[in-house]
Write a structure and sequence with these properties.
By secondary structure, this protein is α/β, with parallel strands linked by helices. It has 15 helices and 13 strands. The chain has a single domain, classed as TIM Barrel, CATH 3.20.20. Strands 1, 2, 5, 11, 12 and 13 form a 6-stranded parallel β-sheet that branches. The protein has a 3-stranded parallel β-sheet with strand order 6-7-10. Strands 3-4 form a two-stranded antiparallel ribbon. The radius of gyration is 20 Å and the shape is globular.
Amino acid sequence: MIKSVLKKLIDLAAVKTKEKKVIVMSDDWGSVRIRSKKDQQSLIDKGLRIANRFDQFDALETNEDLELLFDVLTQHKDKNGNHPVITAVTNVANPDFHRIQENSFEHYYYKTVDHCYRDTPDSDRVLGLVQQGIDQRIFIPQSHGREHLQINWWMKELQNPNSFARHVFDHEFFFIPGSKMSNNYRNRGVGAAFDVWDQEDLDSHKVTLKSSLKKFEKVFGYKSVSFTPPAMFYHSSLETQMYSHGVKWLDVGRFFKTPRVGGGERWQLNYLGRRKKSGLQVLVRNAVFEPNLHGVSGSVDHCMKRIDTAFKHRQPAIISNHRAAFVGGIDDNNRSQGLKALNHLLTKILKAWPDVEFLSMPEFSKSID
């Protein structure tokens, strides 16, 4: 009851628009999750429990993944003649497993995403395709930090030769769940890159954040105007640094917890457009489209209802999505079903609201400046 009342009050406070705007925020592009179907089976044999759709389906995007996604997007146009656009929330690096092992797990090294694409045969044209997507205004990367990884915690696990992290290292898998860690901190595993336990974490996060935004600009040729912390977990002291490097929007949850140094968490209530002391504005997603979570018809129906609610409140529809919906490196049927659902969703949106506008996150930012 209280949560429902708070939600209504937050909706009233949020940014309003006369136009019907749709923004799709799709997370985890660039991050290596499961290297291959063969590696996935080996990870299962070594004790990894496939308990989520990411370990079940997610993998580095391939040339074919992007080509097929772009084919669906370019079949549709809004009232202005613009295609739907994926705001691709992207990690710009992954661990350099070879160098880490070569240095006896004593130091951390990473490879930027352009090198990850180049070194993966089925993904060797991805960076060129991303640039094509940018030029066509259908696929616009924004920052998801550097790695989707709490580096300090993972490295401590790797330095224990009997750890699960070392056991699966040869498969280049780093999304270690809390249940498989010798020190599970908040029992969140290592996927929340900016999770904090002590001052050492916070100090290193400041370095990583600066690096992530600079690497993003170097790889894609422009600054990211939005920042989505991996797993939407970060320490609030990082906000000023984000803003000073050109970030305008912080993408977090409506009811949201931030970690404290030494343990504990602090709740925040957010609404779209909330201005923080740092200068950042808050981006709050208000719809969900996840075909491998809700099924083809279920995901479309669920998303359509949330879009309708957003438009009735004169809010933009900001759709939450993940790359895992559209990739086929582990299971090409997953990609087929995800793209089928996307095609259905876009068709229904255009039929229900012929005056809709499809925007990327940077375009949305400009539209309300």
